[in-house]
Write a structure and sequence with these properties.
Layout lengths: L42 E10 L9 H14 L2 E12 L7 H10 L8 E4 L9 H13 L3 E4 L8 H34 L12 E8 L2 E8 L3 H13 L4 H10 L12 H8 L7 E4 L10 E4 L8 H14 L6 H4 L9 E3 L6 E5 L6 E5 H6 L9 E2 H16 L2 H49 L4 H30 L8 H17 L2 H11 E7 L2 E6 L14 E5 L2 H5 L6
Parallel strand pairs: 1-2, 1-3, 3-4, 9-13
Antiparallel strand pairs: 5-6, 7-8, 10-11, 11-12, 13-14, 14-15
Amino acid sequence: MDRCAHQPWANTVHPVRATIGITARSPPAKERQPMSDQQQDPTPVALYARVSSDRQDVDLSVAAQLRALRDYAEKNGYVVTREYVDEAESGRVADRPQFRLMLDAATADDAPFAEILVWKFSRFTRKREHAVAFKSMLRRRGVRVVSITEHADDSPTGKLMEAIIESVDEFYSANLAEEVTRGMREAASRGFWVSTFAPYGYRKVKVQDGAKERPKLELDPPADAVVRRIFTMALKGHSVLDIVRTLNDEGIPTRNGGRWLKNTVHGMLGNEAYMGTLVWGKRSKGKNPPVRVEGAVPAIVSGDEFERVQELLRSRAPKVEHPRRVSSPYLLSGLVRCESCGRNLTAAEAKSGKYAYYVCQSLLKRGKEACVTPRLNARRFEETIISQLRDHILTESNIRDLVRLLDEEMDGVAREQREKLETIEAELEEVRRRLGRVWQVVENTDLELADASERIREHRERQRQLEVAADEARAMLAERRVLLDSAETVAAFAEEMSEFLRTSEITETRSFVRSFVQAVLVRPGRATIHYTMPTPPDGPLGGGDEAEVALSGRVMSSVRAGG
């Protein structure tokens, strides 16, 4: 008879599900009798306990596993020499430091134990290939793994039973992620918010869904008004940087009480939830398209307003150029626009081939009455813009300051992710405590497991969501890098960029210019260069992302090529 059958948690043992694991046999308790003085020394054993964080089946807590293992060892004449515990870790060996220590001890010349006791084989490992490798390695060292709830032996029948147990467990593990994803996709398609966090301006609330409660979004005043204001400013032509500065200058806090960052606001302006559309699975690498449910979220802006903002964002973003523009012999082709009428200025030569100029499309097609912006000498106009880049942007001082700004921006992102991670980990710890309390009630009272199973599933699902969010935050932190980290590197970079502008081919120069210049707006006597990035606050442009340039008479009066 199984020694564990009388324990309060015995009913939680599921039908054989899956083992990754390891060889090992678990002789029934009756095979071993308490040892007398005449018997050989008791067998030294190690206890290994783990609570899985990537499963939703009912597992014992670490404390409960250890109690069961100690009880089994005592009743079967073992002596416990080591205990290893990995709490709330995944089944991956790389994520289980105590498991690695145990393997090191087991394979040492003076191994302190001859057997490893586990509650279930799946606590040891779940990959069949790992099971075979570990089994072979441990057996060569004279160490075997014993499950106290799943019996197998070294006979042909026992080995077959072990292989079946391991195969079923691996099948369960492989299918769990797909099942969870399928369930989340189905819930999202019905308008429930299955992502870990609500967007800024919303909060999650539980609504009844049959016998269950599921989360949906509702407006979160006054944050929703801040979202509305961000979109309004964008619609009025304010850049993302302008919006960030305004929010920070007015002391409006983020959700975590920190300062606003460009990437935060830019992400909000592209979030379809604000126009009422729930989107889930955009980052999915599988064959299934993202789930989109219109009207599932209370809208803060209209669909028309949202689309207009996207157009504005696209117009300010660096462009992927049309092949005709890339092949154009003119440096600023596709970048110059008339501020008076809004039409593009195109570069062209006169029929004689002696003249090259940029001209407004209105002027070209409808004559001088249609637009007041004059034609611009192509070469001199381009030289003016290049001079601005070289003298005001690509200086050693500016590049150093730009690197510092980038570094500060990345620091801000990292700080935001650290704060997010701390919040996630605090909630994760609370979920684990709640789960542990539920198990204590199940173990120590007459409460039936079936009555607690729904609460356990909810806690495990929340735990899984939090761990995914924590992994994402850690990944963001891992991407933190410092660029151009020495004065010598910055100086060399600045010189290289200036030399590139002086000597490179037109195609290469045009591509380089587009990485810095977003657009050039012209009107009589003036041009405004819109850069793709903000400039240093203490630089010649005072921290803005645009610069006014005077156009001399030489640029506007002569249109002769090279003239």
